[in-house]
Specification:
two-stranded parallel ribbon, about 280 residues, 14 strands, alpha+beta
């Protein structure tokens, strides 16, 4: 009985081993089958992708070839059209240039005639303008002595002269012309009376404006009732009388203090006075 049990146990263990081995083999077989199936499927997909790629390459090549041939055909046609157009344009341009040359020659003759005529006209116009400018140009005024008499004190803007009244050496921006009181003072030149005022140094003073920035000043007057501000006066017209109102020259002999200004700057009257 013991022997039979032992043999039975051994057989049972052998069967288990066989089953384990068979299960392992079966598992390996299934795994191998699955692996082969996966590899086979991926291989099919790779072949399909390769086939698609080859097909796209071939299609692109065919399309490019067709486009190239089409462009070449267009280029040939365009070149032919350009050649024909160039020939036509050259012919037209030649004809147009010949016509333009004829027109220019005729117009140049007319232009020469017009230029000569315009020159003649412009000369006459310029001559008229020059004459008008000469007439319109304002000449410097010609000054005359406002009173008759000797010059007691000369112009001394850049030097000094002795003042009896002030008992010192001073500048003198005009000339002092000897004249008795109440002597009539006349306008040295034609102009407009700018002002009549009492100057603190030179007494009753009349200022007359002339052309080209000139003005004349008459000081140490007794009266100025013969002139009004804004009045137009002529050369030699009475504007006042000699007095003794200049405080800076009150100790001097009776005289007229006379100045000439150019652009508001004093100048030597003796250089502008005429007999």
């Amino acid at each position: 009985m013991r022997r039979e049990k032992r043999s039975f146990n051994r057989n049972d263990e052998n069967m288990k081993r066989v089953l384990y081995i068979a299960g392992g083999i079966l598992s390996l077989t299934v795994i191998a089958f699955i692996a082969i199936f996966i590899l086979y499927g991926s291989g099919k997909q790779s072949e399909k992708q390769i086939a698609k790629y080859n097909t796209s390459v071939i299609d692109n090549y065919n399309n490019n070839t067709e486009q190239t041939s089409t462009q070449m055909g267009k280029t040939v046609n365009e070149m032919q059209n350009e050649v024909s157009n160039n020939i036509t344009n050259e012919v037209e341009n030649t004809a147009i240039n010949e016509i333009d040359s004829v027109v220019q020659e005729s117009s140049s003759d007319n232009t020469k005639y017009a230029v000569n005529t315009s020159k003649t006209e412009s000369k006459s116009v310029n001559e008229v303008k020059e004459e008008t400018v000469e007439e319109e140009t304002v000449k410097d005024p010609e000054f005359k002595m406002p009173v008759e008499g000797d010059i007691l004190r000369e112009y001394a803007k850049d030097s000094l002269v002795y003042s009896t009244t002030l008992d010192e050496w001073i500048t003198h921006t005009g000339i002092d012309i000897a004249a008795e009181k109440t002597t009539v003072v006349k306008a040295s030149a034609e102009g407009t009376v700018k002002s009549i005022k009492n100057d603190p140094r030179y007494g009753l003073t009349v200022v007359i404006e002339h052309g080209n920035g000139f003005s004349s000043v008459y000081s140490n007057l007794l009266t100025a009732e013969f002139a009004e501000e804004g009045e137009q006066v002529k050369q030699g017209q009475t504007i006042g009388t000699v007095g003794n109102t200049a405080t800076f020259e009150i100790a001097d002999e009776s005289h007229l203090h006379f100045e000439i200004l150019k652009d508001s700057n004093s100048v030597n009257p003796e250089l502008y006075l005429s007999e």
